[in-house]
Design brief:
Elements (H helix, E strand, L loop, with lengths): L6 H15 L14 E7 L3 H12 L4 E4 L26 H15 L32 H14 L3 E3 L11 E3 L2 E6 L5 E9 L5 H5 L4 E2 L32 E3 L2 E6 L3 E2 L28 E2 L13 H9 L6 E6 L3 E6 L19 H24 L5 H7 L4 E2 L20 E2 L7 H5 L8 E5 L3 E3 L3 E4 L5 E4 L2 E3 L5 E4 L13 E2 L8 H7 L2 H21 L8 H10 L6
Parallel strand pairs: 1-2, 1-6, 2-3, 6-22, 10-18
Antiparallel strand pairs: 4-5, 5-6, 7-15, 8-9, 11-14, 12-13, 16-21, 17-20, 18-19
């Protein structure tokens, strides 16, 4: 058994790491603090970091503008149970990251709260004996690994740089010339990459986009639009009353229950649910008890209480085990960490609107954890179980031990000349010709809304989980805008895809793959002095294969 470090020593170590990562102390800042580079990347997500690393390896100067004070997006924000689909589909810098995760945990000094031999991962992310990569990790481990990777390339990262959502992006002849931040700084580049989950740069640059769900008829997709009949998973049992006063329709519906779901297969502007991927621990020495959040509203959980009256809801979360006695806890069941219906204003929202949504999600989730551990209407066995869990003392220290990254499963999606659809995922009638990476996950949409059934009960709507297909190519044309809208921008995260296709593509390893491919194309566009839409695919493909991307 490894020697277990004391809580104090762990906090000292973590605080040292945090101080090293603070924006003002970064060793990656270039002398003179120039605001001009070959490639400007907006968003230090996993995709943005992969893009930056690739750009530097191809000899390009690069600046990463990160709106927050932390890099890595969801990969460092709690999603340690990697949604991978087929591991062999992931290559390049993405695989390098997961190989570095394996190396990190091969070091016995990084097992602070349990011995390496005690940890057992499972499911799709189980690490086989012959594997050189590892797909489960703590948020702090992902942050360290990413920081080491960007430090090795001396990447210039500017923290707390948010795009000015009022001032227009400066364009000339269809090219972005400069972008302005809220702090008044402007950044100039030859090429730009929007690697955010929101697509703000894409939108401000005048690129076409959408959000919500397309109808089944628009692209001939059976899985898009309103889906009540297929939404059988994560569903309420029959008979759960939706009224403020149970049994009394005159009292009105409980919060965020709609009177109807909408016509089956129809389009809408509603968004699949967001949540926090919760890093929890049951180790007393490293655990902070969950407190009732300020402004706690018992009514938020009335449907949960009533659902318990109809059925045993265990488990309430997917509690995926991470190293050092921690979890990646995700939504599970009819009422869980997904705050269904409370994110519709997020995609096009301003910063104030989004911050309010993020705060509401945090309060809801902390309130849910407290409720499950303490509320008398929760069965005693459930309370006893959730009293064991709390927030790790050594994670997110600068954020009161709670992830700053809400799981933005889907926001804006670009509409370019090429749209990835359900048919690209299944390859039933079409396959992308200009592959810049592979998708490999089930077409997965979380629930979108709650509604009143004709029987007078409540149901969830929108959950889709359809797999059974192999890895499929993602077309280069889906990450570049229409030429007449912008000719020097690439969008590897909010790419051109329908709601249901995006539900398969939207995985962190794939975002890293597409980020690397976007930077490769941007570098070739600079070298050949062409627009991103004019990059020769043969040359791009050869270069991607040189850098170990997997395209087929």
């Amino acid at each position: 058994m490894n020697r277990i470090k004391s809580p104090f020593s762990i906090l000292v170590l973590r605080c040292t790491i945090i101080l090293f990562l603070m924006p003002g102390l970064s060793s990656c800042q270039r002398a003179g603090n120039s605001n001009e580079a070959d490639i400007i990347i907006y968003g230090g997500t996993s995709s943005g970091l992969a893009a930056a690393i690739q750009a530097k390896r191809m000899g390009k100067s690069v600046i990463v503008l990160e709106p927050s004070g932390r890099i890595g997006g969801l990969t460092t924000g709690g999603l340690g149970q990697t949604d991978i689909g087929k591991k062999h589909a992931i290559g390049g810098i993405a695989r390098e990251f997961y190989q570095n995760i394996r190396k990190y945990y091969d070091n016995a000094d990084n097992w602070n709260w349990q011995d390496r031999s005690e940890y057992k991962d499972g499911g799709q992310t189980r690490t086989g004996e012959s594997e050189d990569a590892m797909w489960t990790f703590e948020p702090s481990a992902a942050l360290i690994v990413f920081q080491n990777m960007v430090n090795s390339e001396a990447i210039d990262i500017r923290f707390n740089h948010r795009l000015d959502l009022i001032q227009e992006v400066t364009k000339e002849g269809g090219k972005i010339m400069s972008i302005s931040m809220e702090n008044g700084e402007a950044f100039r580049g030859k090429m730009f990459i929007d690697a955010t989950y929101e697509g703000d740069l894409m939108a401000r640059a005048g690129v076409s986009y959408t959000f919500g769900r397309e109808s089944v008829s628009q692209y001939g997709e059976s899985l898009n639009g309103v889906q009540t009949k297929r939404a059988t998973h994560h569903q309420f049992k029959d008979g759960v009353d939706p009224y403020v006063i149970a049994g009394n329709p005159e009292s009105g519906l409980l919060k965020n229950v709609f009177e109807e779901a909408g016509e089956e297969g129809s389009a809408d502007k509603k968004i699949q649910a967001y949540c926090f991927r919760m890093c929890l621990t049951d180790l007393p020495e490293n655990r902070i008890a969950i407190k009732k959040p300020a402004g706690y509203d018992e009514q938020e959980y009335e449907l949960l209480f009533r659902a318990f009256e109809k059925a045993d809801l265990w488990p309430l979360f997917i509690m995926s085990k991470m190293p050092n006695r921690k979890t990646d806890s995700n939504n599970y069941g009819c009422f869980s960490s997904d705050y269904i219906g409370m994110n519709y204003d997020y995609p096009d929202g301003d910063y104030e609107t989004r911050e309010a949504i993020i705060k509401a999600h945090k309060n809801y989730t902390l309130g849910l954890l407290w409720t499950l551990a303490n509320h008398p209407r929760i069965p005693q066995k459930i309370r006893d179980e959730y009293k064991k869990w709390g927030l790790p003392k050594d994670e997110y220290i600068e954020y009161d031990n709670w992830s700053p990254q809400l799981y933005i499963r889907e926001a804006r999606r670009m509409v370019s000349d090429y749209v990835m659809t359900q048919h690209h995922c299944t390859q039933d009638s079409i396959s992308a010709e200009l592959s810049v990476g592979l998708g490999a996950y089930t077409m997965d949409s979380h629930n979108v809304q709650r509604y009143l059934t004709s029987d007078g009960f409540v149901k969830n709507e929108g959950n889709i989980e359809v797999g059974g297909f192999g890895p499929y190519p993602i077309d280069y044309r889906s990450i570049v805008p229409k030429k007449d809208e912008c000719s020097n921008l690439l969008v590897p995260v909010c790419l051109s895809a329908t709601h249901i296709a995006f539900g398969s593509i939207r995985m962190e390893p794939v975002f890293m793959v597409l980020g690397q491919s976007a930077a490769t194309a941007a570098s070739l566009a600079i070298d050949n002095q062409v627009n991103v839409q004019e990059v020769e695919y043969r040359q791009l493909r050869e270069k991607l294969l040189d850098y170990k991307q997997r395209l087929q």
